Amino acid sequence: MSTRHPSYWDKDVEPAPPSGELAKEVDVLIIGAGFMGRWLAYFLRGRDVQVVERDGFGYGASSRNAGFLTCGQISEMLSDVASAGFDRVIDTFLERRQGIAIARREFPELEVDPCGSFDYDPITEQGRELMGRLNAAADERVYSLKQATLGGRSRETYFNAADGGVHPVQLMRELQRATPDARFAFGVNALTVARGEAELDIAGRRVCIRYNRAFICTNAFAPELFGSSEVVPGRGQVIVTSPVATDTTRALGYLNQGYDYFRFVDGRLLIGGGRNRFPAETGTSELRPTAHVKQWLEQQAEVVLGHRDWTTEYHWAGVMGFPCGGHLGGSPRRKVDPQTEVVAGFGGMGVALTPLYAQRIAAEM
Ligand SMILES: Cc1cc2nc3c(=O)[nH]c(=O)nc-3n(C[C@H](O)[C@H](O)[C@H](O)COP(=O)(O)OP(=O)(O)OC[C@H]3O[C@@H](n4cnc5c(N)ncnc54)[C@H](O)[C@@H]3O)c2cc1C
């Protein structure tokens, strides 16, 4: 693998050394130790579970995202309504709420910044209607209109009271800590996984392992194992500034239909996005950040903060997986054969959705 670029979250992670011997046979084999693989191992506690991860910790989207624990924002959902319809958008909103509730219930001690989220796109009639429908579906006033300040200007925004921010690597660590009976093996690259047998590469050594059930939780990298996985990679990039002074509302924030998003972490601005601006930079699973997107994010940071009195201290890329290439393009679950399933492609929603999918799969077994 090429140079490893740290994120703000995983900069202090000590990658585990490559694994030694693995059992020749396991009940459940999980490929990939991102949120999906870790939540699944967590819900399969008590079974014979082997997780294999090619990195020394997890090197995909889970340790490199923005850490928004969100059930969705209005402007992005409005464009989803246009492509997928109201029912699909409302179902996904409810699924995200369920996933968040599971994460909060299973890890009540997890630090969550309960700041809510503000969507700074213009308020429209369609937006008001969608807020009403979502609140009715949730049977709770999740969305309302509220004043917020952006770059020195106060304005009315769509406000989501239920949203918050997490430290994604803290959650990944908690998940592994709470799953002591699952075996995690790092530095193990799965080469083939099908019909009860997987071929693995451990530091240049080829080994085979037999399994009853396997779950391929490799997200944007799923096409490397299954060309026909239907998951399309979408690289996202993020910067984190030096500590900043600003009167901008210190909560989760969305701009440009949610393509750009920000929050405040340790007194710094974290801002990500630019995927719609630079389509040629996104359709890759390469975890290398690029100068064009950095420049765009710095311009957006100036809009958010209202000044340029800061420097960029971190810049990284992470890769989302989109089922059939779309935000709500299809299901992340796909059966490969009776024993093998791909569970990959949560787009920009995996922090909220993976606990729900893992719980469902565990309940079916
Ligand atoms: C920049 C960015 C910002 C985001 N912000 C948010 C957000 O704020 N809120 C939200 O809900 N979602 C967000 N997301 C999406 C979210 O991070 C993902 O949906 C989620 O992390 C997906 O988890 P996963 O376990 O499916 O995949 P990943 O975390 O990508 O895990 C896949 C793992 O599989 C491993 N792997 C791959 N191939 C192999 C192989 N052959 N053998 C062994 N191991 C392998 C990889 O090393 C990796 O660790 C964001 C994503 C990005 C990129």
Briefly say what this structure is.
The chain is an alpha/beta fold and 365 residues long. It contains nine helices and 18 strands.
Structure keywords:
alpha/beta; D-Amino Acid Oxidase, Chain A, domain 2; 8-stranded mixed beta sheet; 18 strands; globular; about 30% strand; 9 helices; about 30% helix; single chain; binds flavin-adenine dinucleotide; about 375 residues
Largest sheet: 8 strands, mixed
Query: Which molecules are bound in this entry?
Result: flavin-adenine dinucleotide
| CA(first)-CA(last) distance | 34 Å
Count of individual beta strands:
18
Helix/strand order, N-terminal first: EHEEHHEHEEEHEEEEHEEEEHHEEEH
List the helices and strands and how they pair.
Elements: E1 25-31, H1 35-43, E2 49-53, E3 68-69, H2 74-84, H3 86-106, E4 117-119, H4 125-138, E5 143-150, E6 153-160, E7 164-165, H5 168-177, E8 183-186, E9 188-194, E10 197-202, E11 205-216, H6 222-225, E12 231-243, E13 252-255, E14 260-265, E15 268-273, H7 279-282, H8 291-305, E16 312-323, E17 333-337, E18 340-343, H9 350-364
Parallel strand pairs: 1-2, 1-11, 2-8, 4-13, 11-18
Antiparallel strand pairs: 3-7, 4-6, 5-6, 9-10, 10-11, 12-15, 12-16, 13-14, 14-15, 17-18
